[in-house]
Amino acid sequence: MFDKVLVANRGEIAVRVMAACEELGCETVAVYSDADRDGGHVEYADEAYNVGPSPASESYLDQEEIIDVAERAGADAIHPGYGFLAENADFARRVEETPDLTWVGPPSDAMETLGEKTKARTVMQEAGVPVVPGTTDPVDDADEVRALGEEFGYPIAIKAEGGGGGRGMKIVRSEAEVDDALESARREGEAYFGNDSVYVEKYLEAPKHIEVQVLADRHGNVRHLGERDCSLQRRHQKVIEEAPSPALDDDLRGDIGEAARQGVREAGYTNAGTVEFLVEDGEFYFMEVNTRIQVEHTVSEEVTGIDIVRWQLRVAAGDELAFAQDDVAIDGHAIEYRINAENPAADFAPTPGQLTTYRPPTSIGIRLDHAVAQGDEIGGDYDSMIGKLIVSGDDRDHCLERSKRALEHFVVEGVHTTIPFHRLMLDDETFVAGDHTTKYLDRELDADALEAAVDRWGPTTAAGGDGTGATTNEVTVEVDGKRFDVVIEDGLPRATAGSADTGGGSSGGAATTDTAEVATADAITAEMQGTILSVAVDAGDEVAAGDVVCVLEAMKMENDVVAAAGGTVESVPITEGDSVDMGDTLVTLE
Ligand code: MV4
């Protein structure tokens, strides 16, 4: 086994890899950018090196710097995680060619072959794996595309050779669309992948996305760990993944697993990988191979009990896979929910900000892969993922029941998250039935339902507004010794628990409930005659909507006077003990 592994990544996957290293007795080396000085992966590692400024292109993608750090640190292997350099065959080759360094991933040659889609299709076809009807060579011109349209029937897809994730894919529904689609597929291929070569496939209208996890060692053993269903996607972004797929029966499951195994064997592949398929009408078709550990590898780990990252490291170190295909059993069901700092009610726009509250769920059936803690900032430099909630159960129904519990108890304040979206899905008939295809969200997701979900289940405080225009305040009250959570909507009289020294309402002093003073424009005025008990702000202070500016006692009640809108305090014409009349100005804001 390696002595020291450099993890060329950040966030939850870097910590996941380091956890496996730790268990194998390897020391860990983190790399980080200026934006990640306080990153969870930096804290976790045994040692850490700054590899450059915040933009990934100047840090996490700086191949030379990362290899240089590996040498300086005396690491003997590099694990790339997912994203960044993980599928870069040139980087893999540089690592392979560096003395005393091992690449924890597939051979660079296999990465290169499988990264080119027509080559990958050829390899799979040679292994007897069904591929989507189409070409295994790039197409030259529009006439050739039209001839293929005739042959397969429209619609067809023109795909960029270097493509993936929906980039550089154009759907053509008739002969008339061929010229434009060909041109834009070429343009996108060139722009994204530096390769304007394109090929053609028959286009399947509403397939399921099924992918098979494979592991292969350097002794000729190839195993598959069953499939994951990643059909629930939004604009090519996976949001929920699960294992096993609710859409496969055991026959199809066996066939697709064996096909993946055969394909990987043919490609001379080693280490972990994923073979992606489209499944429609009981037929499966090879789509592409992902030559990395994936975000959603966790659900396969949960249902097989096999630690995929541990095996990545062991296989790279030359170990032989210690289990036979027959030893791999799928036990129960697991679902992964991506918890992203995004606002589902605002087209899933990222909402960077501070996790002012971060309280994930716990207890049976829950796994949380993350690298954050309460108080951390979710920055805007990289992806918006906060973490991954993985829920396991005896079967899919059980897993869904547990998921409801888990998501209900996942409390995040300060940023918007995808939690309300997930909770909406758990009430969604099509998803619950497992009938969703890759087209489902893009066709059926209802903006009103999303907005209602965010209203109901979203944060009460979030940077950048909540997208709904409303703010709510929650307070807890005890009535006859029973607790009640009360939601007070903005603009209505607002109850609070009162100040600590008179809390509970049972003392002989002032009772605790109160009303808010509503500011008119820039002045916060007294809504009733009374006495100022305390003043909470000074000139120059910044206040936010809902902040208490002073406490006014009137009619034996303590009233928290709150700002209706945020601003800078301009003046405070009152002091403690003052008597004020209704309408008197208490605080003015700039
Ligand atoms: C397809 C397809 C239907 N037919 N190819 C989208 C991402 C890219 N890697 C391949 N993709 C697709 N290729 C043929 N011949 C439908 C998709 C597709 C899709 C695939 C998987 C998951 C979600 C998807 C959403 C839209 C389209």
Quick recap:
This protein is of the alpha+beta class and 590 residues long. It folds into 5 domains: 4-104, Rossmann fold (3-Layer(aba) Sandwich); 118-132 and 208-297 and 304-322, ATP-grasp fold, B domain (D-amino Acid Aminotransferase, Chain A, domain 1), CATH 3.30.470; 133-202, Dna Ligase, domain 1 (2-Layer Sandwich), CATH 3.30.1490; 332-467, D-amino Acid Aminotransferase, Chain A, domain 1, CATH 3.30.470; 526-589, OB fold (Dihydrolipoamide Acetyltransferase, E2P), CATH 2.40.50.
Describe what this molecule looks like in 3D.
InterPro entries: ATP-grasp, BC-like_N, Biotin_BS, Biotin_carboxylase_complex, Biotin_carboxylation_dom, Biotin_COase_C, Biotin_lipoyl, CPAse_ATP-bd. Residues 121-317 form the ATP-grasp domain. This is Carbamoyl-phosphate synthase L chain ATP-binding protein. The chain is of the alpha+beta class and 590 residues long. The chain is 27% helix and 30% strand. Strands 13-12-9-10-11-14-21-19 form an eight-stranded antiparallel β-sheet, sandwiched between helices. A five-stranded parallel β-sheet has the order 3-2-1-4-5. Helix 4 runs antiparallel to helix 5, helix 6 crosses helix 9 and helix 13 crosses helix 16. Residues 465-470 and 493-520 have low confidence and may be disordered. The structure holds ligand MV4. Ligand MV4 binds next to strand 6, strand 8 and strand 13.
Give the SSE map.
Blueprint (H helix, E strand, L loop, with lengths): L3 E4 L3 H13 L3 E7 L6 H5 L2 E6 L10 H11 L3 E3 L9 H9 L4 E2 L4 H8 L1 H10 L15 H11 L3 E9 L2 E6 L5 H16 L4 E5 L5 E9 L5 E13 L2 E7 L6 H17 L4 E10 L2 E8 L6 H8 L3 H9 L16 E8 L1 E2 L5 E2 L2 E2 L2 E3 L6 E5 L6 E2 L6 E9 L2 H13 L2 E3 L5 H7 L3 H5 L6 H5 L2 H11 L14 E8 L2 E8 L33 E3 L4 E6 L6 E2 L4 E7 L2 E6 L4 E5 L7 E2 L4 E5 L1
Parallel strand pairs: 1-2, 1-4, 2-3, 4-5
Antiparallel strand pairs: 6-7, 6-8, 9-10, 9-12, 10-11, 11-14, 12-13, 14-21, 15-16, 17-20, 18-22, 19-21, 23-24, 25-32, 26-28, 26-31, 27-30, 28-29, 30-32
Helix pairs in contact: 4-5, 6-9, 13-16
The protein binds ligand MV4.
The site of ligand MV4 has 18 residues, from strand 6, strand 8 and strand 13.
